[in-house]
Amino acid sequence: xxxxxxxxxxxxxxxxxxxxxxxxxxxxxxxxxxxxxxxxxxxxxxxxxxxxxxxxxxxxxxxxxxxxxxxxxxxxxxxxxxxxxxxxxxxxxxxxxxxxxxxxxxxxxxxxxxxxxxxxxxxxxxxxxxxxxxxxxxxxxxxxxxxxxxxxxxxxxxxxxxxxxxxxxxxxxxxxxxxxxxxxxxxxxxxxxxxxxxxxxxxxxxxxxxxxxxx
Length: 215
Fold this sequence. Notes:
By secondary structure, the protein is an alpha+beta fold. Helix content is 27%, strand content 17%.
């Protein structure tokens, strides 16, 4: 889905801040949230659905909250949606407001056919289709409509876009696609700089390259 979480290539947010302390948890509550996510089996929680629960956060909340608060919001939202708790109970336990993600507007794609034979091979030029679904997708906004080159065929895996919305196991070939930074960001790119993005075959269309040297 299009949302504030999809920040690749968006200007105005300043440099990426890096903390020299690379310990996995800055505070103890983050460790507890990690355990909560690991132990969330009763929710029937699959990774694509969990990712989408975070994508649905209110934009202001998403941008103003730390990484593990995103996790907490996502798990709590799915617990409420599964009927395991209520917003009122969460707020009573928290002693105040407990923000949840917005309702899931995602729908299953019309194409639920599993594919097992890759259409593309290493070196093929492809273009990512421009598609902005209301639900989960693994095609970042900044690569949609852009041309790239297949650099690896990973194999065949379940499609996140379908699994996130209860569609079960539908498979698709999965590729690593190389994009030049100029293709993605025009004059904002650098000569010789490339970005590799993993993409499902159903996102891709054949493309003819005029320039593949990375300049």
